[in-house]
């Protein structure tokens, strides 16, 4: 395997010059630069990325820890993070935690060993101490784990207001709210707080149904929604805190012989691509997923460069009305 010394010998330059070409540091003539690149290509030289990161004190790698990449929201978020990281010559190490704190700890240790420039954390576990003591740039999504660690969140409270107010305007008399487990200390719980406030102000009958701690268990969605349909047949409005839960609600109500939106109106949250693929198309509160991905990468890069960043980063939401309301 060729070394940097072999490249220097082949190009007729010093090892220092080869290093400066690879790291784009200092003035190097185009002639010399071409000699070095030609030598690297001829020798099939592959720079040692870990060694280079030690030299630069930056790896150009960002760690992304999410609960489940197969979930449409997190799949789309990962796609946006990778897109914007690549625009800044960075790569992404994707870690799929599956809500397992032990697995998450293994991933954190792995990211440390790879000297990533920072970690974007979208985890939903109850364990946060490992993140507080990372001593490297971090950004959390939809979770505030420390007053000094920056987080990104859409305006969950406003989103909850928009969804609930729409159902009330449409004449719903009894509204079901299906949400994740509120024991998880997530900023998305603000959607439920807004729901409670709006139905309370308007004196609307309501019922709240939570998932268990594994908020991504789709079999659980079927069970709790089927139970809701049969125990509360008078529900005529549903606000679900994700489009996936809303999609299961749509399926269960249609299975029960209810017509949407004539008998029951349904609103989801996130506005992932699947919302417009359903029949009828799903009304949803849109989170700005592209903006979240762009800002997450930006905050990691700015911290890595020694800049101070603001801890609270709240992004606006938008109600997208479609056929389910």
What are the salient characteristics of this protein?
single chain; 325 residues; alpha/beta; 434 Repressor (Amino-terminal Domain); Rossmann fold; 3 domains; six-stranded parallel β-sheet; six-stranded mixed β-sheet; 12 helices; 44% helix; elongated
Describe the secondary-structure layout.
Elements: H1 4-11, H2 15-23, H3 30-43, H4 49-56, E1 61-66, H5 72-87, E2 91-96, H6 101-113, E3 118-121, H7 129-132, E4 138-141, E5 151-154, H8 156-169, E6 174-179, H9 189-202, E7 205-210, H10 218-231, E8 237-240, H11 243-255, E9 265-270, E10 283-286, H12 289-304, E11 312-315, E12 318-320
Parallel strand pairs: 1-2, 1-3, 3-4, 4-5, 5-11, 6-7, 6-8, 8-9, 9-10
Antiparallel strand pairs: 10-12
Helix pairs in contact: 1-2, 1-3, 5-12, 8-9, 10-11
Model description:
InterPro entries: HTH_LacI, LacI/GalR-like_sensor, Lambda_DNA-bd_dom_sf, Peripla_BP_I. The protein has 325 residues and is α/β, with parallel strands linked by helices. It has 3 domains: 4-47, 434 Repressor (Amino-terminal Domain) (Orthogonal Bundle); 61-154 and 289-315, Rossmann fold (3-Layer(aba) Sandwich); 156-287, Rossmann fold. The protein contains 12 helices and 12 strands. A 6-stranded parallel beta sheet has the order 2-1-3-4-5-11, sandwiched between helices. Strands 7-6-8-9-10-12 form a 6-stranded mixed beta sheet, sandwiched between helices. Helix 7 (129-132) links the parallel strand 3 (118-121) and strand 4. The protein is elongated and about 85 Å long.
């Amino acid at each position: 395997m060729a070394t940097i010394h072999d490249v220097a010998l082949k190009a007729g330059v010093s090892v220092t010059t080869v290093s400066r070409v690879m790291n784009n540091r200092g003035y190097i003539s185009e002639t010399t630069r071409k000699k070095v690149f030609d030598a690297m290509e001829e020798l099939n030289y592959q720079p040692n990325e870990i060694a280079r990161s030690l030299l630069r004190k930056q790896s150009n790698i960002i760690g992304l820890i999410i609960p489940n990449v197969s979930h449409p929201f997190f799949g789309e978020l990962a796609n946006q993070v990778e897109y914007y990281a690549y625009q800044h010559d960075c790569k992404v190490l994707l870690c799929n935690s599956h809500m397992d704190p032990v697995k998450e700890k293994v991933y954190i240790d792995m990211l440390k060993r790879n000297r990533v420039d920072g970690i974007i954390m979208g985890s939903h576990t109850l364990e946060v101490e490992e993140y507080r003591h990372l001593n490297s740039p971090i950004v959390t999504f939809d979770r505030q784990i420390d007053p000094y660690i920056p987080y990104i969140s859409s305006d969950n409270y406003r989103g909850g207001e928009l969804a609930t107010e729409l159902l009330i305007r449409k004449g719903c008399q009894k509204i079901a709210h299906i949400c994740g487990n509120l024991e998880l200390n997530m900023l998305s719980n603000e959607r439920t707080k807004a729901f409670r406030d709006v139905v309370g102000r308007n004196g609307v009958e309501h019922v709240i149904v939570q998932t268990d701690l594994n908020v991504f268990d789709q079999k659980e969605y079927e069970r709790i929604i089927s139970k809701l349909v049969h125990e509360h047949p008078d529900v005529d409005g549903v606000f679900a805190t994700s489009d996936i839960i809303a999609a299961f609600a749509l399926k269960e109500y249609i299975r029960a012989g209810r017509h949407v939106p004539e008998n029951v109106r349904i609103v989801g949250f996130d506005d992932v691509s699947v919302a417009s693929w359903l029949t009828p198309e799903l009304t949803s509160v849109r989170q700005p997923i592209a903006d979240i991905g762009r800002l997450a990468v930006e905050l990691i890069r700015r911290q890595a460069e020694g800049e101070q960043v603001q801890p609270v980063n709240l992004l606006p939401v938008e109600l997208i009305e479609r056929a389910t309301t």
